[in-house]
Amino acid sequence: MSRLRVDWCSNEAATYAVKRWHYSRTMPVVKTVRLGVWWDDQFKGAVIFSRPCRNQHLMFGLRPEEVCELGRVALDGHEGFHVTAVVSRALKKLRERCPRLRLVVSFADPAEGHLGRIYQAGNWIYTGTSAPARMLVHQGKKLHRRHYTGSTFDNPKAKPPRGSVWIPIPGKHRYVMPLDRRMRKQVLKIAKPYPQPADALTEGAEHQLGEAVRPRPSASEVAS
């Protein structure tokens, strides 16, 4: 029996993983589906899919229900297994539950030093970058912009701290995983070469996880 298990998990477990092990510390603000990751029955994190926030279906000529976004891969390290294996198993589970899906989209943020290496290793198709955006910074620290744009329910249109500034940031690297042959043939027409280290803005970031290994949670801390 495989030591690696990827299976559906609760929102509480996924939130725990994201807040503890993902660089963003935030869950997507849209509806999600969530898969937990276990190694030797030890909870190791979560993979989270959601509806795209940027009308991605229009770019590919699809209906909204035919596209989803891989928004978070939040793991407590990956000793003993490969992240690409986790993502592959998560995609298989997703396809079983959502047979109408035709395309999965994900992004790697060069402002965080991310190139999307887990997608490159998993043979995802690179299609370029999203539109440039802005980053809100206060005293050298990045703030989560959705808290100040009315995109969260608990803090709508909050005022940024005095002295905060918006700075321009480049678009994110966009990767796609087609789920049928017709879709693959379509997206291969717009495929581009994978970005290389010179395309990242932060030195020393070699993977998408964004965080160092932290203490493992106990079984009582995590909902299974």
Broad CATH class of the largest domain: Alpha Beta
Helix/strand-derived category reads alpha+beta
Task: Write the H/E string, N to C.
Answer: EHEEHEHEHEEEEEH
Q: What is the overall shape?
A: globular
The CATH topology of the largest domain corresponds to Aminopeptidase
DSSP, total strands: 10
Nearest-angstrom radius of gyration? 18 Å
CATH superfamily of the largest domain: Gcn5-related N-acetyltransferase (GNAT)
Estimate the mean pLDDT confidence.
82
Number of helices: 5
Domain count: the total is: 2
- What is the CATH-assigned architecture of the largest domain? 3-Layer(aba) Sandwich
Report the uncertain regions. Answer: 150-156, 202-224
How far is it from the N-terminal to the C-terminal residue, by CA?
Answer: 19 Å
| Sheet with most strands: strand arrangement | 1-2-3-4-5-10-6
Largest sheet: number of strands, sense, barrel closure? 7 strands, mixed
Q: What percentage of amino acids are in beta strands?
A: 25-35%
Helix content: 10-25%
Helix-strand layout with pairing:
Blueprint: E1 4-8, H1 11-21, E2 32-39, E3 42-50, H2 56-59, E4 67-75, H3 83-97, E5 103-108, H4 117-121, E6 125-129, E7 133-138, E8 141-143, E9 165-169, E10 173-178, H5 181-188
Can you describe this structure in just a few lines?
The chain is an alpha+beta fold and 224 residues long. It has helices spanning 11-21, 56-59, 83-97, 117-121, 181-188; strands spanning 4-8, 32-39, 42-50, 67-75, 103-108, 125-129, 133-138, 141-143, 165-169, 173-178. The chain is globular.
